[in-house]
Amino acid sequence: MLKLALPNGSLEKNTTELFAAAGWSIEREDRSAMASTNCPFAESIFFTRPQAIPRVVSSGLCDVGICGYDCVAEARLSHELEERSEWPGIITFLPYSKKTWGCTRIVLCSRKNSSIQRIEDVSDGSKVYTEYPALTEQHFREHGIHVQCIRATGSVEGHVRIGEFEVGATVLEEGKTCDKNHLKVIGDLLTSATVLISRRERMDAFLEALRFGAHLLNAAAFLIEKEEN
């Protein structure tokens, strides 16, 4: 039996629907971090921000988690997972996101009327408003540019639109939010997808996570086929 960490926020609804397609219910009281389920693989369910899931899985507080690959990559680079042996293993990619069945892009954006057309146009010392400080800093460093990353606590698109920041880094799924805020994409940081992750130290839990992942993939295939028909 596994202790599961599931994402709240934008992925919560589709994750719950994925469980339902597998024949499992999730019952969660409003504002409660814990939920009950009839999933035969689950001992407990803990809902939290996707960004925290790699940490609670690597620490052993949970055995398995669902989050975006972007969250795993950011946690590794930001040293939230100090030792390489603590990095959770990716069991499988799950073909769903907030609104689509595909991947998402982590992009750099700027105002459409800005003189910045590509990453090379960003000046040394610029402040970048980003949901991914570690990924963003590394990407600019690879281009020989040193920027000051400000961790986003609000809408990246909104703060770039009003001119508080020349550049922001955010998730792009359909692109509507960028368009509505008159922003353009000037570069890509990462292509991300929803992943099922697990600790690798406990082989029994890892094998159970593999079986769990197979059931979720079957459920996702059912939902995709249902939508296409």
Give a structural overview.
The longest helix is centred in the last third of the chain and has 26 residues. 31% of the residues lie in helices and 29% in strands. The protein has seven helices and twelve strands. Helix 1 crosses helix 7. The strands form two sheets. The chain has a seven-stranded mixed beta sheet with strand order 2-3-4-1-5-12-6. It folds into two domains: 133 residues, D-Maltodextrin-Binding Protein, domain 2; 89 residues, Periplasmic binding protein-like II (D-Maltodextrin-Binding Protein, domain 2, 3-Layer(aba) Sandwich), CATH 3.40.190.10. The two termini are 35 Å apart. With 229 residues, it is α/β, with parallel strands linked by helices. A hairpin with a 6-residue loop joins strand 2 and strand 3.
